[in-house]
Design a protein that fits this description.
Elements lengths: L13 E5 L6 E6 L5 E3 L2 H11 L4 E5 L5 H9 L2 E5 L3 H13 L5 E4 L5 E3 L3 E3 L2 E3 L2 E5 L1 H14 L3 H6 L5 E8 L3 H13 L1 H8 L9 E5 L4 E5 L4 E6 L5 E8 L2 H12 L4 H8 L2
Parallel strand pairs: 4-5, 4-6
Antiparallel strand pairs: 1-2, 2-3, 6-7, 7-10, 8-9, 11-15, 12-13, 13-14, 14-15
Helix pairs in contact: 1-2, 1-4
């Protein structure tokens, strides 16, 4: 992001905000050249879980897979759920009942949920199994200060996985369901047809049908198709090794004559 930030004494570290009911955080790191850098909510949550020493984590299937990479490095269990905080809350409770002591979860938008009481610096952070935007903002700032890094330097230490999301409107739910059902039934033929080598995709590594169809490719790309739960929309999410490729995957999906429109025309 290239917007310049001005201040009388030049000492701005971050710009922060929340949505109207304070369950989605927004953080921008202010760089030395006074431009700003955005970090998605799912990665803000990853910083929180690592800093607060989570022992079990639950996140939706659509969240950035940098979470899995870092948690695997730390030996921490990650439970992937369907999209929506009720599913995350259910998973947190299950992890707590199974004996996990520091249970945390968050949504892809960064709304953070604490599933168990936490001892933090000799004090107690009460469980809060509902989306919160303040904790991720505060913990990201504290973590950067304690390590002695600027905020963007802290974020640079995260696994380098990038994401994007987009959608096409006016797709009736029954049409979206038909597309996903056909894709599921004949995945070995249809996935290479629409996600072709010509578009930069490699062979399929694995597929999840937890919520829509999420496809991992051997070259590291991830594409996830899902019908909206509350609107006539067909959504596409991506993960990739670079932001440019994550953006490109979604652009290929949304273009007129792109992946989603071709699926709509040929699979329904």
């Amino acid at each position: 992001m290239a917007r310049n930030v001005e201040h009388a004494d030049g000492r701005i570290d971050a710009i922060v905000s929340t949505d109207g009911d304070s369950d989605r955080p927004l953080m921008l790191a202010v760089l030395p050249d006074r431009t700003v850098r955005f970090l998605g909510g799912d990665l803000l949550g990853l910083v929180v879980a690592e800093h607060l020493k989570a022992t079990a984590v639950s996140v939706p299937i659509s969240a950035n897979d940098a979470i899995d990479v870092r948690m695997a490095e730390l030996g921490i269990d990650v439970q992937r759920t369907r999209i929506g905080s009720p599913y995350v809350i259910t998973a947190l409770e299950k992890q707590r009942q199974e004996g996990a002591k520091r249970v945390m979860g968050w949504e892809a938008n960064g709304g953070f949920l604490v599933g168990s009481e936490l001892n933090v610096r000799g004090g107690t952070l009460a469980a809060l199994p509902t989306r919160d935007a303040v904790l991720p903002i505060v913990v990201n700032l504290i973590a950067a200060r304690e390590i002695g890094l600027r905020l963007e330097q802290l974020w640079d230490r995260l696994p380098q996985r990038f994401s994007r999301a987009g959608l096409i409107d006016e797709v009736p739910p029954q049409v979206s369901r038909a597309i996903l059902e056909q894709l599921t039934k004949d995945a070995s033929t249809l996935i290479p047809r629409f996600f072709s080598r010509e578009l930069g995709f490699g062979p399929v590594a694995r597929i999840s049908l937890l919520d829509g169809v999420r496809i991992w490719f051997e070259n590291g790309d991830v594409a996830h198709l899902r019908a909206s739960g509350n609107a006539p929309q067909l959504r596409i999410y991506s993960n990739a090794a670079t932001q440019a490729r994550a953006d490109q995957i979604v652009a290929l999906g949304l273009a007129e004559g792109g992946i989603l429109r071709r699926m709509q025309a040929s699979l329904t």
